[in-house]
Amino acid sequence: MTRFQNIQSTLAPDLRKLNELILSALSSPNELMNRVIATFLERKGKQIRPMLVLLAGKILGNVNERTMHGAAAVELLHNASLIHDDVVDDTVTRRGAATINGLWDNHLAVLVGDFFLSSALLQSVHTGNIRIVESISNLGRLLSIGELDEIYNARYADPSENSYFEIIYRKTASLFISCVEIGAIAAGIESDDPRYEALREYARLLGLCFQIRDDIFDYFPDTKIGKPTGNDLREGKITLPLLHALTLTGHPDHRQMAALARKELLEPAEIDLLINFAVENGGIEYARQTMQRMASEATETLCNAFPEPSPWRDDFIALISHVIDREY
Ligand code: FPP
Ligand code: MG
């Protein structure tokens, strides 16, 4: 059993309940909506985000109905953002299967995404806790701003590591932070409790690692992730491996590559050039080392706040290793 399967099996009864809750949250009298949703739910993804909500509750010793509604809310909001993201990015495959816009069209995908988003908000209301509703609502704002920042940067700004980290914080880490916040709030923890801040910091680092790993996939063909290579560059998004290679100002190809990186609408051959430049100049290695450093920091933060060993603490530690080593 892999580390990840091990976490899944410790959470299996809760995940089963959660998936039943999600299914009922998405029920509607519309036959077309039901057909689209049934197809979408065939590829659920790994459900790392609701697992984080549950793990936060477990490590704090209190998983309850609020936790389940909170976990459903983050999973639904996450899926809403992916459904909309595939429209924005014009992507026709995800998780190895056709996207809603790919299988049907943008019109339908936007509406189904709206339905997921509204269902997420409703689930947060069902927690009966205004801090959870606030966390989910803030999250929707941060995700949208993160996406717009990325578009702004791709169009108007010079690429930099600082702005890269700012973007991935907003578009990815914010969701991970919200998950542990919700798990902790549902467990009755106040925000001035040091364990609350430690869980948030762990989740921030986990989220950053998750996005860096996701961005590395874009540099290689034939991964199990089920998305085409070079997609980010096609959209003008410059991620950590290439950002690092572009700092090598002494490299003979530096001027050409820096100019290409700023060019709008790259040709496929130009995308290949940039990808090769990043891969051949230590970009992947640099990104991997960055993740390793963050994972150690996350583990240390967690162990300081939760000094007692527990299976749940082990799960948190295993989760970050899984995220940085994953092949899908
Ligand atoms: C995937 O990133 C997309 C996101 C992490 C966030 C998308 C957010 C929105 C579309 C706006 C907010 C939406 C709602 C419903 C509040 P990516 O494009 O880098 O990764 P990918 O390769 O998986 O598509
Ligand atoms: Mg995308």
Explain this structure.
This protein is 74% helix and 1% strand. The protein contains 16 helices and 2 strands. It has a two-stranded antiparallel ribbon with strand order 1-2. Helix 1 crosses helix 16, helix 9 crosses helix 10 (194-217) and helix 10 runs antiparallel to helix 15 (283-305). The structure holds farnesyl diphosphate (FPP) and magnesium ion.
Q: Nutshell version of this structure?
A:
The chain has 328 residues and is mostly helical. It is built from 16 helices and two strands.
The oligomeric state of the chains shown is single chain
Q: Terminal Cα separation, in Å?
A: 16 Å
Largest sheet: 2 strands, antiparallel
Alpha-carbon Rg, integer:
20 Å
Assign a percent range to the helix content.
over 70%
What global shape is seen? Answer: globular
Low-confidence stretches: none
Order of helices and strands: HHHHHEEHHHHHHHHHHH
The tally of strands reads 2
Count of discrete alpha- or pi-helical segments spanning 4 or more residues: 16
What's the arrangement of strands in the largest beta sheet? 1-2
Bound molecules: farnesyl diphosphate, magnesium ion
- Based on secondary structure, the structural category is mainly alpha
Whole-number mean pLDDT: 94
User: How large a portion of the residues is in β-strands, by DSSP E?
Assistant: under 5%
